[in-house]
Every structure is written in structure tokens, then in C-alpha cells.
Amino acid sequence: MKLNEEKLKRADEHFNERYGEQGTPERNDFEAKAAAWYYAELLKDARKKGKITQKELAEKIGKKREYIALLEQGKTDMQLSTFLRISEALGLNFTLA
């Protein structure tokens, strides 16, 4: 199979077309949601590796299981303080650079 390189787009070209140029409100919103999804995935993977249920994690941080489920599904956002509490409950260490 031969690729037609002229038809291939770079990732930044695709993102510019779909979400707007960098620095636009639409692109900033997309990038914020992408980052939230990424960190939620990190926490979900750590929870599963630690064999901790959503309910157990929720109890450790004083939240409801439904909240953990919504976070893991990317249907709600979390505050930094909640992220740090979840990280600590899962034995993860994050540093801000």
C-alpha cells in the first residue's frame, strides 16, 4: 500500500481546522479538556492497579462513588485539591514544575 503523503495532514493542522488556532478560546477549551482526560486516566489506571474500587477511593477522599465514576468518564472536572487528595489516596506523587 502506497501512502499519498500530500493528503496526510500534520496533527497541528488537523487540530487547527477542528478546534481553532492555538490561543483561541475554542482551542484552549479543547486543550483543557484533553489535559483533564489525561490526568483522570492516570488516576483511573492507578486505582485499578492498586485494586481499589471507586467506592473505596471515594470513601478515602470524602466523596461519593458516583463522583469518581463521573471523573473517570470525563463527564466532570476536578479541582486541584481533589486531584491531590485522590493522588495521595492512591499513593501517587506529583510535582508542579
* Corresponding CATH architecture: Orthogonal Bundle
Broad shape: elongated
Q: How many domains is the backbone divided into?
A: 1
Q: Give the SSE string.
A: HHHHH
Report the sheet with the most strands, covering strand number, pairing sense and barrel closure: none
Share of β-strand residues: under 5%
CA-based gyration radius? 18 Å
Q: Count the beta strands.
A: 0
Low-pLDDT sequence parts: none
Helicity, as a percent range: 55-70%
Cα end-to-end separation: 44 Å
Total of helices: 5
CATH level 3 topology: 434 Repressor (Amino-terminal Domain)
Looking at CATH, the homologous superfamily is lambda repressor-like DNA-binding domains
Query: Can you give the mean pLDDT?
Result: 90
Which CATH C-level class is it?
Answer: Mainly Alpha
Structural class: mainly alpha
How would you sum up this structure in a few lines?
By secondary structure, the protein is mainly alpha-helical. It has helices at residues 11-19, 25-49, 54-61, 65-72, 80-89.
If you had to describe this structure to a student in words, what would you say it looks like?
There is one protein chain. This protein is an all-alpha fold and 97 residues long. The chain has a single domain (11-89), classed as Orthogonal Bundle (434 Repressor (Amino-terminal Domain)), CATH 1.10.260.40. The protein has helices at 11-19, 25-49, 54-61, 65-72, 80-89. The model has no long low-confidence stretch (mean pLDDT 90).
